[in-house]
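2.7 Reproducibility. Because tokenized structures are sensitive to small changes in the input, we list the exact sequence used for Clustered mitochondria protein homolog, including any N-terminal residues retained from the expression construct. No trimming or masking was applied before prediction.
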Amino acid sequence: MSENSTEANAKADLENLNLTISKETTSHQNISTDFANEETTVSKQGAAKEEQTIDNVFQVTIKLPHQPYEIQIMVSTQEQVQDLRQSIIDSPGSFQYSCFHLEHKGERINDYVELSEVKGLAAGSGVKLVEDPYTEKEARMHLIRIRDIIGAAGNRVDTLHGISAGLSLHDTVSPWKDPAAPSPPTDIPAAASPSGAPHALADYALDTPPSMRTIIPTDQEQPPKTIKSLGVSAWNPPPPFLRQQGHLLYLQLTTNEGEQFQITSHISGFFVNRSSNSKFDPFPRPPPKNAAAHSLFSLISVLSQSFSKSFETLLDANNKRDPLANFQLTNAIPSSPWLVAPTVTSLSSHQPDLTRTQETFLLSGVENTETLRDWNEEIQSTRELPRETVQDRVFRERLISKVFAEFNEAAARGAMMVARGEVAPLNPTESKDAQIFVYNNVFYSFGADGVGTFTSEGGDAAARVAVGKDVGGVKAINQLDIAGLATPGTIIVDYLGKRLVAQSIVPGIFKQREPEEHQVDYGGVEGRDVVAENEAFVPTFSQASRALKVKKHPVWDKEGKRHVLEGSVETKGLLGTDGRKYILDLYRLTPLDVTWLEEHCKDGNELTIESQSHNYPHRMTTLRPELVEAYWRLKMGEYVQEEVKRRKASAKADGPAATMNATGESQVNGVEKINGEHQTEKDKPSEPKDKTEDQSPEEDRVDISAFSLSLNPDVFSGQVPQTNEEKEEWANDEREVRAVCAHLHKKIIPEMIKDLREGEVGFPMDGQSLSRLMHRRGVNLRYLGKLATLTENEDARLRALKALTVQEMVARAFKHVAHRYLKHLPMAFTANCLCHLLNCLLGAGLNESPEAQIDEDLRDLYMDADYSFAKLTPHSLKGEIEAQVRTRYQYVLDDAWTHEIRHIQLLRSIALKLGLQLICRDYQFTPETQTNTEKSKLEANGFANGNVKYSGNSHACGNATGKKKKKNGGPTSPVTNGSDTPSQQSTFSPEDIANMVPIIKDACPKSVLAEEALEAGKISMMQNQKEIGQELLLESLTLHEQIYGILHPEVARVYHQLAMLYYQLDEKNAAIELAHKAVIISERTLGIDSNETILSYLNLALFEHGNRNTTVALACVRHALELWKIIYGSKHPDSITTLNNAAVMLQQLQFYPESRQWFETSLAISEEVSGKQSVNTATLLFQLAQALVLDQDHKGAVHRIREAYSIFLSKLGPDDPNTKESEKWLEQLTQNAVSMAKHAKDVQARRLRRVFFNPRATTMGARPQPQVGQPTSEVASGRDISSRSSNSFDSRSIDELVKIIENGDNISKTSTGKKRTTRSNPKRRGGAGAIGAQA
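Resulting structure tokens (single pass, no recycling of outputs):
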């Protein structure tokens, strides 16, 4: 009962918090409704949680026909029988079974029902596995599965996923261990690693160039071969007369012993036949050489004596890696790294495998029809599944995620074939840009203005943007999930310089209609000239419009006739022949950015020759939906405040007026805080809820049903109102849109810059994170130039932001230039073109006049191709990039921008935008690079200056020896494909471009149910209702895994968030396990060097250190820092926190000199980024002083603590706790240092009359461990070792005492004094505890 009452209270509190949202505003889907939905889920489960745990999850016994004859499997009544089948197939004791059915009490179990529907199935029940006869399809699937299991599948070549797709480096950086298993702590000085380094950071230097080999996997042992080959025989397929006898396939097996067997796949199983390579006799061998089994795995075990032992060795090798690193991705396209190992392009890396050529047949059958699917029907019927119960919603969203993922993959593969010219167009007589294609039941077209639709908007440039915005609009409609409103499956694919749109085929879209009929049923038919109306579309379109803040408005056709539409005139409705209502062309869901258009996109008659080069290339400058949402919240808040003031005025004679005002403000802030998670309003304080507890519900409620704000998306787009009333309404709509644009310029952009300058939000690491930050705030990327202009000042953080912004503009400009040259170029010249472009941009410092490498023989084969890229020079490319930046971002690059670019970071950004996969080697961008490369080789062999050396590989400590060598290379440089790098005249060669993968943007919606549970759990945790909060968070985790599958970016993000929450709840083992999973999934789905992966590694380091696995933590820190170098460079503003964490970890391991160095590095960056007189710098000075004491530098400690005290005093005042704390520390350190100075001679004579303290047991009050997660009890052992000096402060002033210290000679550095360590440290705003900076 107590738990139910807790749930009721939580629900009541949240309802009170969200009373400002009335029931009428269903279009605004906020977290209050999500929480209410999830509360329904919890109320179903929470009333009898214990009973459900007992009844729903239980163990069943699976009885097998062969050894081990029985296995135990945990099941839930909510699972499907298919889930139980999958568990059996994945179990180590029964993985050889694939064709079977299950029986319970002699009755066959239907595979497509829930286990709860199986009569009598309970704990301890026995389920019998019965082997079924094979069909040809099941035999093919069985062969593929067995090949995968026994490691005989070989290396597959996948054009979609790219080289090393889904790569994870986790196991080489931080070998995973089961957190539940006991392990000795490693927070004591570790023994030397095999390389001789005492810890992971021992040979690391922050100021060295990044080693790109950080993101290349280390050479691993090849797994043992269990057989030599297994595939389809040359005798396949069976002739008709033998197919009637049950023959399905003919296979050929070669064992490790060298024996070759011809095998018949029969409906009853597999047996060895009497065929040979030259003789066909597919019937069973006679005894004693006969062998047969239902499973191919069992048959191989009989035929090969070494198979079982080698298979066990293979399993052991696989078990050394985390299982998540081996699982195949199903619901997400794996990330392809932009750098790949040089060995992948060596001829020896491609092994012969005849069955690799047969996999298409094995997967699709002889007619290749099994993989053809009606994508549109699958997508629409899945979305129409019932959604009444929670289980219905889980099943529906799980299937939606699966179908969208499969469609995205199939559509992307087809798009690549279209881009390569391998699919015949349906209209070959049209121009190339106007051609359309159908492949695998997917419709393809180019993202170009082939038929002149966008002539007035900007032609090809407008069409390219429009299709991108269309995908975003489809995703928004999919997320709304409006019943009765269908969208086609849609993705866009950028590949080989071409943008392709792939859509599922809407039934009836190609239908030839009567002359008087329109091609569409609602919206603009032919641009804006003809407009169709259909009342059947109004209800569903109105739901979408309300949710997206789109105003119902009139439009006028070319004859001036008025039509009232629910959406933009560009948005179309189509009644498919399947009876569904489809919404199409969703690129104008928000209004145009009129401020930008009026400033930078002049009409043709206004253009001069000079301004034309600055004119924006198109008019598709719509506002972002996040901006519209932020403006809606702003206006809604103003409305609520006005309503509160009105009530206050009407009730000013009553007593509670003041309370009502406070209540109203609290409601506004509460709504902003909940619904604006990523907006600037999130930091506004909300009033305590207990102020309103005694109010009546009527007094609390502010009904906003009368509030309405929607925008007309068709203003400023050529519509001509006819009457005065229409003109007045249109003018009001225009004013509202102008107000949104003004809100963007006057508030959103300045506040974003302010937050970045003051460190209120995490500083972006690369162009991707900068883009996400801007989009989250509602700022389009066309404002990158404005961002760069506004950050031109002396502030170090803003200088870093400007450098990142300029780099992103240059990378995007290069992308547009490259697309223009690639668009009409045959694929055989793609690498040559990109190589020359990269040499002109990044390699001009090494070779000022690079020449394009073109095979003249191949050139003669493509006489009509465009080879204009060969005429490019570094100077002309520079001009083209400057022109692109000037027109697209309205920003003029400095003349010296080519000398200020960061080569590695810009190369990475370009590769990610174009889908390039480059060979990993030390590229020489300038002549100095070549010298530095040679120097780094000496350093790598142990000749670096100073205490910290540079190791090129962060996978293992000190793995530097010989790191610059390749198998085929000399001792001075790596060699790629036989080319000698030192002698080459250019930075890049065509062989450096190993592959090109497509860039995909999809419209797959997120799971509403999983997000509801996650947000509800967060709210419960914030309300200090931990029990219900943890239940909801666990439910959210389960839902994410069930709906998306484990290997998915959304699952990685929820793992990351839950790891943080569990760590704060002191559930360390659970937090660490989730953090390890977050790292692996982030690497495999988001990229091994993505900014989210770096943050996952940094948080994993914090958790491991808090769990006393500090050596593992340092390895994670090192890897993250090396990745940070690659994607940003050194001295990232947020790296201060990471460096502090590393210093604290080194203190824990008692490496005090190294810890001091890392604190000093952190301080140097803070002084540069935040200023020498900032509070952040003062905090770091405080910590450095403690580190200096531990390193026996007492004079330096006094100086640092005095500097910190001075800053705290001037910035925070004398009454601030930080000031008082630092003052006491200054007195303490000064007194101890003076005592040492007075007795220096006694110290030298071993007459020690001072207070000792043990540096192993104390950190002079720093107590860094709690700041990275450890409880304070673990650092209390060093407190108050002696109080003898507690009342012995010198009466002289601090200045006098410091002079004595500065003039004192022969002060021993082997002793120190201590007064007290019971006070806590000042707040670490930039210190080791700032976990939020990493989140």
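The chain has a mean pLDDT of 78.
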